[in-house]
Automatic annotation (TrEMBL):
Protein name: Sugar ABC transporter ATP-binding protein
Molecular function in Gene Ontology: ATP binding; ATP hydrolysis activity
Organism domain of life: Bacteria
Keyword Disulfide bond recorded: no
InterPro entries from the UniProt entry: AAA+_ATPase, ABC_carbohydrate_import_ATPase, ABC_transporter-like_ATP-bd, ABC_transporter-like_CS, P-loop_NTPase
Taxonomic source organism: Paenibacillus faecis
Keywords (A to Z) from UniProt: ATP-binding, Nucleotide-binding, Repeat, Transport
Length: 506
């Protein structure tokens, strides 16, 4: 390749105590290319990018930017070398204003005689938001008033404002709606065409193959190979990732809808600030999918069922088991009533809502299963460990052990913990918002198989997802939402395809 090298790593290593997350990786990232980075959960992708972007110090090895030694102490240092990264989890600080978030750590640029010129800061914030087509917004309002996707856009705007020469996108597109993804693709291509370098981490192989000029494959901390666009071949890339041939079907293979007679959830005429007159039932043994664009309200539906958002009108009824095995209706008043009636909820924003980062994998897994493990308030010794060990094995959670802090896990492995937390306890109703976000192909297959077997055991499962193939592949019925309402209902046996759904989303 005759393009100039922008960044080079030579035998770079990162160890966390006994775990070698990145092992002797030497790679070159060129100007004028979008380089993809792919590998199973925990293969070291985020760790490499964290070293390049100054978030983590390296253990061994060297890095060079345009041939000069490069050892960033922190992200501001990396930014001074024109390297910026946007990460998988949200990197905005809720109580700070949008403008303050954009210029975090660099407010000094607006200081006039020791006082921050807010007007100028707000003007520049608007300029930066225009780079990501944000639309009209009051930049003095706190970031916590924004939704997940908008907060992601703030981070992207922040990175682009400083005109990076190397732009690193770590597993961000899976958190975005269809439009948000296309926007990032456009931004990456624009930077590439301006002869800048882009490093793009994703689990979405078709997306990587579409956008990238070359793909570097990681496995267990090792760089396995770098494949040029002209040699992209899906099966070969998958094989290099997992080190074996991947076979078998991804989704369930039956084409007819099925479910039990008993409704487990009834949503009766719910209105919230976003939702309008939502009515539906979720039945025993049913997988119900909800799809829509961001802003359609689909994520809010999950929160209402789980009791996190109180409807302004209408109610959610859940059928919880009475001591003798019969089912009785209960109104969901808050999260406690939802959990007491065996509703489990995997949130899209797992760091904020689902997991305790400071607690261990075992503690997180066991938390919602305490009722199941304990008898008369006592938990037999060993039961917690046994339970945690089983979940870790079943979901193939990559960690140094069950006592490792969840905050230290790779993104996909965090998602496995939040999934494992609910399926392992007695929840018979699962509300899963974007359940496979950031999860690699191997685990996706396991999760889909698991969901299908839970359905067959009579679990009632609601999947809220931006991924249409996932909805079509797994659901008995699909509700398509638009502007806070249910716009259309489809059944599995209607021979569904993506464009049929999209027609009712836009
Ligand atoms: N702060 C930390 N302390 C201990 N171990 C860590 C820490 N950060 C990462 N690891 C470990 O390093 C390994 C590589 O993690 P990394 O986040 O780089 O993986 P990844 O390829 O980005 O995964 P994913 O696709 O799930 O995001 C994992 O085994 C992870 O548990």
């Amino acid at each position: 390749m005759d393009k100039p090298v922008f960044l080079e790593t030579r035998s770079i290593v990162k160890r966390f105590n006994e775990v070698t997350a990145v092992n002797q990786v030497s790679m070159k990232i060129y100007r004028g290319e979008i380089r993809g980075l792919i590998g199973e959960n925990g293969s070291g992708k985020s760790t490499i990018s964290a070293m390049i972007s100054g978030l983590l110090p390296k253990t061994e090895g060297d890095m060079y930017v345009e041939g000069q030694p490069y050892a960033p102490k922190d992200p501001l240092n990396a930014r001074a070398k024109k390297i910026a990264m946007i990460v998988q989890e949200t990197g905005t600080i809720g109580p700070l204003s949008i403008a303050e978030n954009i210029f975090l750590g660099d407010e000094g640029r607006f200081a006039r005689n020791g006082i921050i010129d807010r007007k100028l800061m707000h003007q520049e914030a608007k300029k930066s938001l225009a780079l990501v087509d944000f639309g009209e917004v009051d930049v003095s309002q706190p970031a916590l008033t924004l939704n997940f996707e908008q907060r992601k856009l703030i981070e992207i705007a922040r990175a682009l404002y400083y005109e990076p020469e190397l732009f690193i996108v770590d597993e961000t597109t899976t958190a975005l709606s269809h439009d948000g993804r296309l926007l990032i693709h456009r931004l990456m291509r624009k930077l590439r065409d301006q002869n800048k370098a882009v490093l793009f981490i994703s689990h979405d192989l078709p997306e990587l193959m579409d956008v990238c000029d070359a793909l570097t494959v990681m496995r267990d901390g090792d760089l396995i190979t770098t494949i040029d666009r002209s040699e992209f071949e899906e099966n070969f890339i998958k094989q290099s990732m997992v080190g074996r041939v991947i076979e078998g079907d991804y989704y369930r293979s039956d084409t007819s809808a099925s479910r039990g007679e008993q409704a487990m959830i009834r949503v009766n005429g719910v209105d919230t600030s976003l939702l309008r007159d939502i009515h539906f039932e979720l039945y025993q043994g049913e997988i119900l999918g909800i799809g829509g664009l961001s802003g359609s309200g689909m994520h809010e539906v999950g929160k209402v069922i789980f009791g996190e958002i109180k409807p302004q009108r209408g109610e959610v009824i859940v059928y919880g088991e009475n001591g003798d095995g019969t089912l009785l209706p209960h109104k969901v008043k808050n999260v406690q009533t939802a959990i007491a009636n065996r509703v489990g909820y995997v949130s899209k924003d797992r760091d904020r809502e689902t997991l305790i980062m400071e607690a261990s994998i075992k503690e997180n897994l066991v938390l919602s299963a305490l009722g199941k493990l304990g008898k008369f308030g006592l938990i037999p010794p060993g039961a917690e460990k046994k339970f945690a060990r089983r979940q870790i094995g079943e979901l193939n959670i990559k960690a140094s052990g069950m006592n490792q802090r969840v905050g230290e896990l790779s993104g996909g492995n965090k998602q496995k913990v939040s999934f494992g937390k609910w399926i392992g306890n007695d929840s018979k109703i699962l509300i899963l918002d974007s359940p496979t976000r950031g999860v690699d192909v191997g685990v996706k297959t396991t999760m889909y198989q698991l969901l299908y077997s839970l359905k067959q055991q009579g679990y009632a499962i609601l999947i809220i997802s931006e991924e249409l193939p996932e909805l079509i592949g797994m659901s008995d019925r699909i509700l398509v939402m638009k502007d806070g309402k249910i716009n259309k209902e489809f059944r599995r046996d209607q021979n569904l395809n993506e464009s049929m759904l999209i027609d009712y989303m836009i």
